[in-house]
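Fold this sequence, please.
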Amino acid sequence: MRSIVLLPYFSRKLPEYFSLFLASVEKNRDTDFLIFTNLKNPEQLPENVIWKKGQLKDINTRTLQQTGIDPGITRAYKLCDLKPFYGLIFSDLIDNYDYWAYGDMDVFFGNLDQFLQKICREERYDIISFRENWLSGCLCFFRNDPKLNQLCLQSRDWKEVLSTPEHYFGYDEVSWKNGKMIFWKLVNGQDLIELQTDVQSFTEVVLTAPGLKMHFGDLVKESIEEHMLLEISAEKVLIGSHFQKGFQAAYEMAAYHLVSEKNRPYFHFPAWKKVPERYYISRSGFSRKPARSTFEKLSHSANLLFRSYPLYYFKKIRKKLNR
């Protein structure tokens, strides 16, 4: 199966974890990754990364041409609401693919190709979600079919979602309930349809659409608990823990999403010139080895106290200014 992940990205510079993202992308050669961005392309890119220059206004134009509505987006975060529309917005760029996906750049992949092949060996699914209870906003695959690509227009609220540029509705996943997140309600067994969210989300659209073949499964890790350790390599994303002076794997995931950890004030990114073939991620950041010495732990604690929190708030202010 030929697949492509669509990744619009608009900012003043590439994220500090971009080299880690590229390293994980490179090993999944059956999947292409299209980065639609205002930034200049790096000198070296994996063969399966397609770099296409553009501006936010080009996304607005493409959306207008396909839906009749100009979303008037001026801030990149609103693109999350547009993810379900990517099959229409980028229709000219996905012609030769069996599947297309929307995703995020703060995702590190294991053997994504192998996971997809295994899933599609069972059934030719229309939709493959990497979360069990909702369509995963960080990575979700759709069979490239004109009728399926029109599903985004089936929500009773899709026009409001597109025509409100200053507000993120959570349309790509499950929306909100009175302005509050409902993810844990779904994890605890509540029915999305009965919750009556602020807008009819894309997850609700596909769950109520007749005849769709869908695969929902928790295949991406989106948070790291205390004492948990992740091992990222060319072959796998393994979830486990510190074991004496080593790493003990418990289970495998298709990918790891930085969404929770990158916003922690004490989480640090590496300054590696070359991404190692194998590395580890804990709640506090990256390391080349699975276990740290007592001296390293004490040094890290001092770093948290005297450096990380001021740096966190500095980054937070800078991020707001860059939006």
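The chain has two domains: 3-216, 223-322. The chain has a mean pLDDT of 91.
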